[in-house]
Each structure stands twice: as structure tokens, then as C-alpha cells.
From TrEMBL, chains A, B:
<dbReference type="GO" id="GO:0070150">
    <property type="term" value="P:mitochondrial glycyl-tRNA aminoacylation"/>
</dbReference>
<dbReference type="GO" id="GO:0005524">
    <property type="term" value="F:ATP binding"/>
</dbReference>
<dbReference type="Pfam" id="PF00587">
    <property type="entry name" value="tRNA-synt_2b"/>
</dbReference>
<dbReference type="InterPro" id="IPR002315">
    <property type="entry name" value="tRNA-synt_gly"/>
</dbReference>
<keyword id="KW-0067">ATP-binding</keyword>
<dbReference type="Pfam" id="PF03129">
    <property type="entry name" value="HGTP_anticodon"/>
</dbReference>
<feature type="domain" description="Aminoacyl-transfer RNA synthetases class-II family profile">
    <location>
        <begin position="131"/>
        <end position="507"/>
    </location>
</feature>
<protein>
    <recommendedName>
        <fullName>glycine--tRNA ligase</fullName>
        <ecNumber>6.1.1.14</ecNumber>
    </recommendedName>
</protein>
<keyword id="KW-0030">Aminoacyl-tRNA synthetase</keyword>
<dbReference type="InterPro" id="IPR002314">
    <property type="entry name" value="aa-tRNA-synt_IIb"/>
</dbReference>
<dbReference type="InterPro" id="IPR045864">
    <property type="entry name" value="aa-tRNA-synth_II/BPL/LPL"/>
</dbReference>
<dbReference type="InterPro" id="IPR036621">
    <property type="entry name" value="Anticodon-bd_dom_sf"/>
</dbReference>
<keyword id="KW-0436">Ligase</keyword>
<dbReference type="InterPro" id="IPR006195">
    <property type="entry name" value="aa-tRNA-synth_II"/>
</dbReference>
<dbReference type="GO" id="GO:0004820">
    <property type="term" value="F:glycine-tRNA ligase activity"/>
</dbReference>
<comment type="similarity">
    <text>Belongs to the class-II aminoacyl-tRNA synthetase family.</text>
</comment>
<dbReference type="InterPro" id="IPR033731">
    <property type="entry name" value="GlyRS-like_core"/>
</dbReference>
Length: 620, 620
């Protein structure tokens, strides 16, 4: 997936964006103070582009991954795999990443500071006064520049580095992290890279995976894993980082199949609610999305591939389920100029944040580019078998060796020559030479070369009936940047109470901790009840926290709210008398009294959405 | 954790080992054929030491991780984090990995093939005839060799490489994968490594994590993540690989606390069953473990730290729960010579396999080595605060400046000199000079140096009452090699039926797929029932597979058994009449008939161990 922040803004939601902006400082404060996430190895100074997830961030990430797996892997019976982060060089040469996965860099010739060429020049051009139409034109063209064009631009405007020094020439910089497998040696190429996407591991296992699906298409393969990108100038936060988690699906299909979707998938599209679309066509004249149902967009041809439509609908469900705001999701189609080198169509789910619309999910049609590349680079078969609906008749060129003529000259070699002539691999080449009256050199399996004359062979064409054929499947690839989605989710769920305190209003499904247990005061007889209840919740698979500190109950409520714990269970002196506890709902600020013996079952049923809060219980 | 295969063999279980050996070929065949796991990027040739998990392997791995998290993280309320794989150089210098995390290599001076020095020389020495006591002595000493000793050994025995050529000198080879953050530059040190263990990320976040636990000790932090080790000669299978998943806990505690364990943890140790122990002491005279309860071993001092004992008991539970055979687990204490550089005690859970006893879990006492190192390398406070049980009186040296004498010479400088003299940091140094009658040079905050004479100051000691103090917490680190554990689990659960077919008898908790759905024959009215039931299972969080191929039901049963699916649900023509299906138990080979409407709830209750198979239903 491409990971650029899109600057075009859909103004319908500028109100939301400014709300996110107004809370940005508060969010950053909570994220850091409560260790939701933090710069990695920060005690050693500034390590940009690397972030650690603290306890709350980790649990949130893990719950988002679980929801993703339930919706995408378990419901659709996908094959899930885990491939290695370390990737040998050869497959990345085939995939085009060694040659084409790069940005351009410049450095200040005095300070030696590095800059990403397009970003720094854009910044410098924006400062030029007066801002003429021609400068604006140059700014627009920057992202498509080739290496020499950067140098020309620097010369044209006499641009200097931020420290006032000359720039070096621009040079390409590959964005993959490079290392070596085993000891470095002059004689062996043991270069390896950290994967820039998770897809290649899946693609190189295609034949095994096809076998897991008993040779049948279509089928999808999913992988959640880390990917790496050696950003030249990483930004703060989770938007442009050097190490990030992707959740990717490679969905293999036969482009000639009359129907790509199962009945259940078709039904899914039919019943999917409206989404906001901004097609490539529309972007030529407007940056405003239009609302449409997925099935309408598919019928009218705005979305061209039914699998892409299915995954758009499914992604929308996923994003809503984890708590992204519906009005803040739009689908933008890539313009032909911005597509990754392997893709021929791509729709991004963009999510509105304080930084504008951010690309969080990409659903690309990779076609058969990768499988063909890997096949030709390895000489291995990476095709699937298609049974033809109608057997097809096909003309096939055949060679007719003239045994008597061959034997005259070649004696004992005759059988092997005839066998080689009947081998289809060389026949087209031979026919060309024959037609051109050129020398007929034939290489035998033992690498000897024999010269034939035209009397020794002739050609004919035969019609063959084909009932099946091999082909390269095509691929639709939904790719989710989970870190970015998490960033958006934090912005979307941060809410303010009337008393000016903040809390995260996470859906119960993704809440990092499902509940917090508190003893009203720190007395052993109350504390031991919280410990036992916590253990029973854990055994039922419900992750809870305990806060038996000496802080007031109000203070402890605030601390729990701030990391989005949706329910609080309080053990008090009444508990010792009647074995009941208080259960408080964070965002509603309402509470019920419930027998301890019913707590585990009740919260379990609420959390699995079988029951609605407050169930049979009454507010107190 | 250290990842060596232990050669000493506990002969009590040689029967089990030979059973594992006899099934080894069959296991390898199933693992490869059914894509449980496979060499990464195999179509590009031999990439040793890198393995991909296929669908069944991935699901198994994921279930094992879930069990681990439930037992270790959720039950004990640990803080779970996810730190980056990429690690800047500085923290790994502090942790000792840049200097000491290495093996020794040799190369063949003609072929340039690399060898791990200790391994290849051991192999060559084993071939020497006659095998004298002195050769055996040299073999034993190999693993502790320093670099020059390898060269001497080669000279002594005139050893040649396997291709008959001279060896190079031995040289150290760091086992971390090296790369660069951002563009390589002569002026900046941007070297980074892939983490060799997950611990350092946790340790460098210690202060934040302590804060998450409101400043209180003890507390534990858990992380499941990838670690990397650039093995010189990786072996086949999951035993010696270059990229592997670790599940690690860093448990921080106050070594002076009167009690390290909570009441629940103490109870846990008391009720833990017997385990097999092979202490460092015992290994001097025997390689046979002895059976003991954990609490006995702790009381008698065989296990010295109660946290280590707790984690040994808990680990035993975990291993049994996922399906490792009890008799095939033993606990071996590290000899002082084999400990990692950061550890001062370590107990390994070793599991018996076809390759002998394999280290799968290490529970090490890391002491305060790492926190002290990181603190001194960053000059950052990485201590915790301990409230003293009894306030302690401590003598403190104080300086008494003689204002009049100082003012005579230094006039306006007097206040700053007095302030500097009262600063405790310089006082011990100054007293030494004073006592030795040497020149009293005092550096002022502005870096000016003034010379004092003995009239200008005197010293006294005061008694101060301390109520708390800062200290470096110590750490117990349980570290699980999940890939190795999975390898052992596959060996332990592979069973043979009477009809010579094999199946995995996974505990339901870790079974990759919980059930498989089959339509008796591939007819739309039956198939659609399986699809709907599958969706209902998915929504209840139960991962199932569907096999509606045209193969016979028996063939499909075998295919499902071979990847360890414990239950089969069959939809047949009776289903159309009475809405019931057949539920078959894989290892018992028994089946019941159950209404469709009850299936989801019933399997859910069996899977969460609330109900026993076959419940209220009768075998048919």
C-alpha cells in the first residue's frame, strides 16, 4: 500500500476536523502521559519514526486485530499466514521493489543534513514571493519529478538549504532496510531486506496456498504483520513511521470467471449502507465526494470490480465497528499518476483527522503482475488451472521429422534428434529458421549441436481440443495500516465530560480493558474480593484491570475513564453483607447493583453483544 | 534467552524419544504437504533459517499465544507492550549485545564457505581415530573457547575444512542483523539492529511502565514479538532459525521486600503438582532429574527465588494446557559457565523431542544489570522508590564554610563559593584533598576554578533520618521460544489410528480450527446450510473450516484429522427433514446427532470447557 497523506480536503466535514484540531494537544498529552504509545528508546534521545505501544495501546491494537480477524478471516474462511520479516533480495528484485521503491534525497553540502527532495523543495517554493502561477505549477509537478528535474529546479530558483548552504544533487534512495543473511562475504550475494509490505511472502507461497484450497479459485489469504520503510524524514505520531503493522489480504481470482462472489458476498453488497465516493474521474473537477450505495456504484461502473466493491463494503463495516465516525470516512480512487507500480486500480478509505483526510486502507487491483514476475524470475509454475466452459479448439504447430534423411547423415543419433524435434519448446524458433532458409541448428539435450537440412523435416498444423488451461490468477489486495487506523480512532473517540474531564468512548469490542475493579477502600477483605473476581473474569477471557490504590474513588474513576475502560466494578462494605457489587457505565455515567455471582456472565453477554446494558438490572 | 539445544539426555524417557523419532519422517511430510510451515521464499532456492507459517501453523501459533496471554497476562494483570523490532545502536551497546552477542566463525580459504567454529571443529574432532581421552577433553572445552584457542586447536590436529582446504583464522561474528536508520552518512551514527530479544524495549520504558503501575513494585511487563539472530549455520526446522517469536516477561521486584508474591501466587505454588528438576549441583554428578513439588524445591533452597518458582509452576501449567506431555518436561538449571552475560541464575524448561531435550523456556534472574547499564549510559534515573520499613539513620558528611576567611580573599564571589561548598556532590572529593593537605581546587558552576586554603572550611558529620530510598529493581525474566514450543507440540500430539492414518490430537484450546463443516454431497441445499452455520460460528468467535469438495466423506475426514480439527459437523439429507446435524469427535471417533439451533451454543460451551462432550446428547 502507498502511505501518503492526501492533501485534497472534503470540506463537508471541516466542522469535525476543527473539533479534532481543538482536542489535539489534549490527546497528545493523554497518549504520552498514560503511555498509550511513546517514541521508542526515548531515554537515548530522539529516535524518529519508531514508536512503542504501551499497555493501553497494545491492548487496543490487539482488540482491533481481533475484530479484523473475525470480520475478514473467520467470516470468509480466508487462509491466514505469517511470513518472515527478513526477505532475501531476489524476490524483491522480481517484485520491482529493489529498483522502484524509492524517494529522492538531497543533502546540505556543509551540515550534511539529509532532506527528502520533494518535501523540502515544496517547503522552499512556498516561501517564494510573489507566488506566481508558474511557481505554483512547479509545486504541483514536484511529486512526479525525475532525479535531474530536482537539480534543475534548484538552479532555476537558486534555492539554498534551510541553513543557507548549497544543496547536493538529488539522488534516489531506496526505502527498504538492508541487511545480510549470515556473514558478509565478497563471493556470495546474501543481501536481504526487511519487507516493505507483507504481500510478497503470500505471493511466493501461492502454489502451496492454492493446494490448501484444493486447487480451487477464488480464495483469499490474510496476514497481519510488521512492515518497514526507511523514511527519510519521519513525522511525529503514527502517520509516517519506519516500522508499522499492516493487515493485508491477497484475494486470488480467475478474471474470466462469470461470477467472482459467493451468494453470501453478493447479499452483503446488496445490504451494505451508503458510502462516500470520490472517483478518479470526479477528482478532475471536484474534491467533494458523493454518497452512493455500494451496489449502485458497482452497477453504474464507478467501481469496476465486484471484489473491490465487496471489500469496500466490508471495510466500511469494520471501521464503523471499531468506532470510526461514519461521516469521517470517504473512498477515494487513485489517479492513474499516483498508483503503485504493481497496481492498475486502487480505492483508498480515507479517514478525516486533525491533519485532514488520511489514507488508512487501500484496496488495490494488483492484477497478475506479481505472480508473473515471480514465475519468470524463478522459472516456477505459479498458475492455476481453469476448466473451460466450452472446450476450445486450438491450432498447434507440429514438426514432422523425415527419419530416413536424418538417419543418412546422423546414424545412431537419429532417435534423439527426432525426439528433440517433437519437443514443442523449440518448434516455433525452428519454423522461423526453416521459413527464412537459414541454417537449421538444433541443440540436443546433451548440448551438442547438429545441423539439419530442409529435407530432414517438414511442418504441419493440427487442431487440438483443450478442456482446461493454465493461467495466472489476478489479485485484489485490501491493505490496512493498523497504526494509522488506531491514530484516527483515538481522535474520533476522545470525548469531553461536562466537568471538562476527557475519556475515550471506545466501543466495548475494542476497549483495551473491558472493566476495572476497585475496592472502595484499600482493606484486605475488599481487596481479596476484587482479586478473585478479576481471576474469574480472566478465566472467562475478559481482560480487566484492578485499581486498589489509596486514591479517592472519583480520582480512580477519572484515571480509568482516561484510558477508555467502559465499565467499573466497585466492591464496597455492602458487598460483604449481600454479595453484590456496583457496575458503572463510563460514557453513560449510570450504575447498577448486581450480585457477584452474576457479574461474569452478565458482562460476558454484554461484551459479546448478546445482551443490552442494563439488562434486567435497575439504575441506582 | 539462550537458544542452545542441550545434549545431556535424561534417559528415563528414551522410550518416548524413540517414538518421536519413529514418527519424524511422517511428521515432516504432513508439515510440508499440508503447509503447516515451510521454508520462506522456497521458490527462490535455499533460504536457510527462515520459515513461513501456513494457515494451520498460523492458527496454531495464534491459539498458543492466546493461551499464553490468558495465563500470564490476563490472570496476573501484567502490562503488555509492543516495542519496535528496529533498535538503535546505543541501547544495545549498554546492554552488552554489541560487544558480547557473538559466535566465532571460520572460513575455507579456497571455497570461502563459512562455518561456525565450535560446531565444525566438534564435527571434525569426532572423526579423529583413535578417540583418546585428550580429544574428548578438547571437544568438551570447545564451547567455552576464546578466539585464539580455535586457531591453536586447528594447528594441533592439523584440521582441514570439509573440502580439504586450509581454514582461515577464527573471528568473532556478531549475531545481530545490522542496518541503518535513514540514509547512510559518514557524519552520523545511524546504525541500528534488529532486536536479539524483546527485553530491551521494555527495560528502556521502565519509568513509564512503573508510572502505569502507579509507582508500585512488584509488577510484570509482557511482550510477544519477533526476535532475530543471524545464525551462521541455521538448521532445518524451527530449532535454530534466524527469525523467531518470543513471548517474554520482565518482572520487576524489590529484592529487599519481605514478600515477593501475592497471596494468590503463594497459593498457586502450594497447589502446583510435582515437576522434574535437574539443578546445577546435581548436573556435576548426574544427568537424571529428580521429581519434587515446586513448594518443596523452594523451601529446600534448590530454587532460590520465589518468583522463579512461581513462574516455573505457571509455565508447567501452560505447557500442559497446550498439549505438551508431562513426562517430557524437565527443569534444568544453567551451570555458571553457560549463563548469558546478563543473568545470575536461570532455569530452563526442556522438552523431550526426537532431537533430545530441547530448551523451550528460560526463566532467568537478570538482577539489576540492565537497568543500571541503561541508567549509566543515558544518565537517566531508572530507579524505583522504596519506603523503608524502619526509617534509617545515616551519617552524612557536611562542609562548614568559614565565610569570613573566604570573603577576605574572594569578596563578591563568597556566596557562590559557599553555595558550591554546601553542594553534596563535591564534598567527598574535597574532604580527601583536605585530609591529604593537598591543594583545594574548587570548580564553580560557571567552570571557574578557585583555590581555597584550610582556614576557609572545616568538616563535620551529621546524622540524617531517611524514610525512603531510591534503588534499582531486580528482574526475573521468563522467556518462551514459541516456535520451539510449537515444534515440540507437533511431535507430542501426532497420533496414529488403527488404520495407520495419522492425526494431531490437539487440545481443543489450541486446535487451529475448532471444527469443520461438510455437506454430505455437494448439493446447493446442503452447501448453503454449511455456509450459514459457518457464519454463525464465526460470529460466536469460533474459527471453523468448510470442506464441500466432491471427495468422499471418509477422505474428507482424513484430511481434517491430518491438520488436527477436533470436531466435524456433517450436514446430510436428514438435516433437510429434521434440522439436525452430525457432530463427530476426531480422537474418540464417536458421533452425536444435534439440532442445528443448538450447535453454536454447545460447541462454544465445550470449547470454553464449561461442558463435557457429549453433554446431554447420545452417541449414534
Amino acid at each position: 500500500m502507498q502511505v501518503t497523506v492526501n492533501k485534497s480536503s472534503d470540506c463537508q466535514n471541516s466542522g469535525m476536523q476543527s473539533q479534532f484540531c481543538s482536542q489535539k494537544g489534549i490527546l497528545e498529552n493523554i497518549v504520552k502521559r498514560r503511555f498509550i504509545l511513546a517514541p521508542a528508546y526515548e531515554i537515548y534521545g530522539n529516535t524518529t519514526g519508531l514508536f512503542d505501544f504501551g499497555p493501553t495501546g497494545s491492548a487496543l491494537k490487539s482488540e482491533i486485530e481481533t475484530v479484523w480477524k473475525n470480520i475478514f478471516v473467520k467470516e470468509d474462511d480466508l487462509l491466514e499466514v505469517h511470513c518472515t520479516n527478513l526477505t532475501p533480495c531476489a524476490p524483491l528484485v522480481a517484485s520491482g521493489h529493489v529498483d522502484r521503491f524509492e524517494d529522492f534525497i538531497l543533502y546540505d553540502t556543509v551540515t550534511k543534513n539529509y532532506y527528502r527532495a520533494d518535501k523540502i523543495l515544496e517547503e522552499l517554493l512556498h516561501k517564494i514571493k510573489p507566488m506566481t502561477e508558474s511557481v505554483q505549477e512547479d509545486i504541483r509537478k514536484l511529486s512526479g519529478f525525475k532525479v535531474a528535474e530536482f537539480d534543475e529546479l534548484i538552479k532555476k530558483y537558486k534555492l539554498k538549504s534551510p541553513d543557507g548552504n548549497d544543496f547536493s544533487n538529488a539522488m534516489p534512495f531506496n526505502l527498504m532496510f538492508k541487511t545480510n543473511l549470515g556473514p558478509l562475504s565478497v563471493d556470495s550475494n546474501n543481501t536481504a531486506y526487511l519487507r516493505p509490505e507483507t504481500a510478497q511472502g503470500i505471493l511466493c507461497n501461492f502454489k502451496r496456498l492454492l493446494e490448501c484450497n484444493r486447487g480451487q479459485l477464488p480464495f483469499g489469504v490474510a496476514q497481519i504483520g510488521t512492515a518497514f520503510r526507511n523514511e527519510i524524514s519521519p513525522r511525529n505520531g503514527l502517520l509516517r513511521v519506519r516500522e508499522f503493522v499492516l493487515a493485508e489480504i491477497e484475494y486470488f481470482y480467475d478474471p474470466e470467471a462469470s461470477e467472482l462472489l459467493s451468494p453470501i458476498q453478493k447479499e452483503y453488497i446488496e445490504s451494505a449502507p451508503a458510502i462516500k465516493l470520490l472517483s478518479a474521474d470526479r477528482q478532475k473537477t471536484s474534491d467533494q465526494s458523493v454518497s452512493s450505495s455500494v451496489s449502485e456504484a458497482l452497477k453504474s461502473g464507478i467501481i469496476k470490480n465486484s471484489l473491490i466493491a465487496y471489500y469496500m463494503a466490508k471495510t466500511q463495516t469494520f471501521l464503523l465497528k471499531i468506532g470510526i465516525i461514519n461521516e469521517c470516512i470517504r473512498w477515494r480512487q487513485h489517479m492513474s499518476t499516483e498508483m503503485a507500480h504493481y497496481a492498475n486500480d486502487c480505492w483508498d478509505a480515507e479517514i478525516l483527522t486533525s491533519s485532514g483526510w488520511i489514507e488508512a486502507v487501500g484496496i488495490a487491483n494488483r492484477g497478475d503482475f506479481d505472480l508473473k514476475q515471480h514465475s519468470s524470475h524463478t522459472n516456477r509454475d505459479l498458475t492455476a488451472l481453469r476448466v473451460l466452459k466450452k472446450p476450445r479448439e486450438q491450432e498447434v504447430l507440429k514438426c514432422i521429422p523425415v527419419k530416413r534423411e536424418i538417419a543418412k547423415q546422423y546414424k545412431a543419433l537419429t532417435p534423439v534428434i527426432i525426439e528433440t524435434l517433437l519437443d514443442t519448446k523449440t518448434i516455433n524458433e525452428l519454423k522461423t529458421l526453416y521459413d527464412k532458409n537459414e541454417r537449421l541448428s538444433l541443440t540436443l539435450p546433451n548440448q551438442d549441436v547438429v545441423e539439419l537440412n530442409k529435407d530432414m523435416l517438414s511442418f504441419t498444423t493440427e487442431v487440438v481440443r483443450l478442456t482446461d488451461e493454465l493461467f495466472f490468477p489476478k489479485i485484489v489486495e485490501p491493505s490496512f495500516g493498523l497504526g494509522r487506523i488506531m491514530h484516527c480512532l483515538l481522535e474520533h473517540t476522545l470525548k469531553k465530560r461536562e466537568d471538562d474531564r476527557y475519556y475515550f468512548d471506545f466501543p466495548i469490542l475494542v476497549a483495551p480493558y473491558k472493566c476495572i475493579l476497585m475496592a472502595l477502600i484499600n482493606k484486605e477483605e475488599l481487596v481479596s474480593i476484587t482479586s478473585k473476581l478479576k481471576m474469574r473474569l480472566a478465566k472467562a477471557g475478559i481482560f480487566s484491570k484492578v485499581d486498589n490504590s489509596n486514591a479517592s474513588i472519583g480520582r480512580r474513576y477519572s484515571r480509568a475513564d482516561e484510558i477508555g475502560i467502559p465499565y467499573t466494578i466497585t466492591v464496597d462494605f455492602e458487598t460483604l453483607e449481600d454479595n453484590s457489587v456496583t457496575l458503572r457505565h463510563t460514557s453513560l455515567l449510570k450504575q447498577i447493583r448486581i450480585p457477584i455471582s452474576e457479574v461474569v456472565d452478565f458482562v460476558k453477554r454484554i461484551f459479546s453483544e448478546v445482551e443490552q446494558w442494563p439488562g434486567k438490572y435497575e439504575f441506582i
